[in-house]
Amino acid sequence: MDAHGLLLPMIYFRRVAVERVAWRYRMVAAITAPGMRSHDMTQDIAISSGYTAALSGAALAAEDSAGRILMRGRDRAELLHRLSTNDIVALRPGQGARTVLTSPIGRIIDLLTVHALDDALLVVTSADQGAPVYSLLRKNIFFNDQVTLEPAGRSHGQLALYGPAATDMLGQVFGAFDTPALHGITRVAFDGTEVWLARRLPLGGPSFTLFVPQPQVDALRHTLVAAGAAQLDRDSFDQLRIEQGYGTFGHELSLEYIPLETGLLDAISFTKGCYVGQEIIARMESRGRLAKQLRGLRLDGLPAAPAKLEIDGKEAGDLTSAIVSPRFGPIALAYVRSAHAAPDTRLQITGSAISGVVVELPFAME
To answer: What CA–CA distance (Å, rounded) separates 169 from 172?
Structure first.
């Protein structure tokens, strides 16, 4: 079947439409249900089609601002291995992993996703960090290293598809494919061209990243929308990622924090050799003591972020992101000092009447 003329069975459209309507009613019921803390902002918040689709169908987002770098050459894995926290040399074609570029004192420069291709590593950066990461990699290529870097953003666009219907929808568009393991990558065909399809952390349901040759990006986007995917705007994405407890660059991911404090254990190898910042991270892990930890806050109002936290007039941490969730009301992500990080601890927003209760991540219905 021609990709541009893709027609899904009408029963699929009806099922998605019914699920979206049903989910909207469940949202309203959850917001006003007994036991849920009522808040005026929750009653009035508009629930976007993208937010609903990510939880009950499929939601599509463009990720053009993410950096994409192809690393080629014999020493490509060794270079990234010695600069970041995870075991990159262990990756085989089709596999992937998250890894953190860290400073000499173990602070977060950026969180990367690395996909191993047959003859290259595809490195994906945080939004707007492609150029800084490219420069960092380039200046660490030594004289004898056989590594070349290509800015893959020029050749490939990036789309993300989230939600419980995402896998089936991709099967309708690309035909049968083997679903990769988390962060793994495979090749699929669209309109006569090769697309890289990678599995990513779930947001609402199974989630995928699509790396698409630039001339086909718009055609694939239109095909996915025609198949029932709803567009996911930035505000709705922030609602979902904060509910899930995912950090983002400039908020939870910055030189202020160490990967262990952020809970990025999947992005750290404790058995690999030396890398920049290893001594600090290894010492913190061996002692089992963290100054602060990333936690959720259920709030009784919506503060501006960032903000300081306190308890009994003493500094208790940093609030880094805050939104009003359609399901949970006002919530936030915060780095809370370990002494106050236990669930149900109430913290005050410094200089504000707003307070919040510490919860484990991800947020869950009470």
So the answer is: 5
Q: Beta strand 230-231 with 59-62: parallel, antiparallel or unpaired?
A: parallel
Angle in degrees, CA 287, 315, 330, rounded to 5: 100
pLDDT in tens, 318-344: 999 999 999 999 999 999 999 999 999
Q: Which two tokens stand for residue 270?
A: 């404790």
Q: Is 49 exposed, middle or buried (0-12, 13-18, 19+ CB in 10 A)?
A: middle
Q: How far is CA 348 from CA 190, 299, 304, 313, 358, in A?
A: 52, 10, 13, 9, 11
Gap between the Cα atoms of 270 and 286, Å rounded? 10
Which two structure tokens, joined as six digits, stand for 335?
């780095």
> From CA 108, how far away is CA 51, in angstroms rounded?
29
Kindly list the distances between the CA atom of residue 313 and the CA atoms of 62, 290, 308, 346, in Å, as whole numbers in the listed order: 43, 22, 11, 12
User: What are 186-232's pLDDT values in tens digits?
Assistant: 999 999 999 999 999 999 999 999 999 999 999 999 999 999 999 99
Rounded Cα distance, 27 and 30, in Å: 5
Q: Measured between alpha carbons, how far is 127 from 50 in angstroms, rounded to an integer? A: 20
Residue 143: what residue type?
Answer: F
- The partner residues of 280 in beta bridges, in order of sequence, read none
d(CA 194, CA 113): 20
**Helical (H) or strand (E) element with 43:** helix 40-44
Separation of alpha carbons 159 and 173, rounded Å: 14
Alpha-carbon distance of 242 to 89, in angstroms, equals 32
d(CA 187, CA 195): 6
Classified as helix, coil or strand, 308 is strand
- Distance between CA atoms of residues 232 and 349, nearest Å: 30
Please tell me the distance from the alpha carbon of residue 111 to that of residue 114, in angstroms, as a whole number. Answer: 10
DSSP 253: B
**Predicted pLDDT at 41:** 55
Residue 40 three-state SS: helix
Is the pLDDT reported for residue 34 higher than 80?
Answer: no
Alpha carbons 130 and 299: distance in angstroms, whole number: 34
pTM: 0.88
